[in-house]
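This section describes the prediction task in plain terms. A model, or a person checking by hand, is given the sequence of a single protein chain and must write out its three-dimensional structure as a string of tokens. No templates, partner chains or ligands are provided. The sample shown here is typical of the held-out split.
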Amino acid sequence: MDLFFGASTNASRARQSGSAQQQPKKRSPAEPARQSRDTLQQADRKRQRRRAEERSSERQKQPLPTSSSASLSIRDNAIVNTNRERVGSLPSSPRPQKGLTRLDRSQPRIREKLPASGTSPKSVATQETERCASVPPLMNPLNGEKSPISDFSPNDQVADDASAASLVNSADAVRQSESQYVDYFQWQSDAKRDIELHLPGADSIETFSLRMPKSFERETDLRDEYLPINDLISTVRAIALYLVESPEFKRVVYEDNENGIMRQLERARNRRNGDDFVHAVYEFNRLLDQERANGDVRPVFSKNQVPSDLAIHIVEQTYNRIVAPTVDMLRQYKAFSNNVYGEILPTLISEFIEHAKITADSTFIDLGCGIGNVVLQVAAQTGCYACGIEIMKVPAKLAKRQAQEFAKRMQLYNMGHSPVRIWHGDFCESTDVQRLLPQADVVLVNNYAFDSKLNQNLLQMFLDLKEGTRIISLKPFVTPDHKISARNIYSPESILTVRRYQYWSQCVSWTDSGGEYFVQTVDRSRMKKFLARHGMM
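The expected answer:
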């Protein structure tokens, strides 16, 4: 674009140096538009000639060694050199080349010369695509379809095999913080601290604690502390509403407001009557076993349309057993850095799913997934392929453990789900992210605390996204009033459109106030129209 404005300046100087008595020619109304188009075409031709001369001169130099590290450097530098060409050529190619994945962020943003490798950027991209395609893809155990990601590092992968870790019961979670819990019920018979609850999965039983926190009040927000008795009652409700296809079972357990199982449990909890509470649990177990014998223990909803409150219940159970006992470890981060920790709460996640149109056929990736709550809820609620990456060691470790616990809990509730992948790493450098981005349908970035440099790096990564991919963020990557012009035609912002949404209080962990989030969509049609209008295609 310097050539464009330089040409205008030179023309102005030429006119000023002419004869003072010479009268200017009268231009037709179409003359300015024609000159602007000619100037843009002339600048584009000069740019192409300069690149051809640079490539010709570099081929005469000694070629670099062809080691794997050298190949990576060649590929990264080629991408730096061809950033404008990539953006300009995207409208004519709906699916970007998978090999062109990111800029080398260790180098400044300058137009370096292409290394003398004898390989053009296009051929590098082709080789990378062929390499990824040669790796046998993972299979979705739910439907036998190929998973979008080809391979993962064994050390970072979370297996879907539910046997990878043992189930953490409610009673186990309470024992991890036993000093903070006290006996809650009063007993006429022998006192109990634990009780078994039958679940819909085959031979599935969970041991729930009958103790409560010392500071317990019935009005306490469930986010503050783990309340095992309330958790048991919520589990009974979820099973009656969604996981047993028997109207009679639903009526006896949930709909009878006088003598139903739910009413008995709530009345016994409020009165602290342990004997009545245990009796109601035993009666529920008997009814569920009877429905299992009748073959009616199965979800009442269609596949991949899990009710949001059921999905949230399972994810919150996972959180309370894995994260809650060690939540203080999450506060170990550097203040005012890109690694400041914060959680997006379930209500807002459900809004993300709705507004970003996440379905069972989507591929979802969370860049900076923290403890993995968003990944797990999206997987549970939509049945889509969901994955996340986290740079901080403690949240990444907890996220992996949550993924294992989540897989087991889905089995307890007799529910299937698509693969879930969570790994530890830097999303700016991860090769797994590079391979996954071109296939992603929805990308989440909680960039609320990110600095401008990291947001710019993300914008460069978004160049690899396919047409129609949605990007959810807490801060916008492009302003709603962004207009494409000759100055910004090659900027990554020009391939994005954006919509703004409001969220209310208690939707995020770092504030009780409301705020806003943004859904950007990759849309190269506006750029294509602009280039066609100026004769640049």
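For orientation: Residues 31-59 form the longest helix (29 residues).
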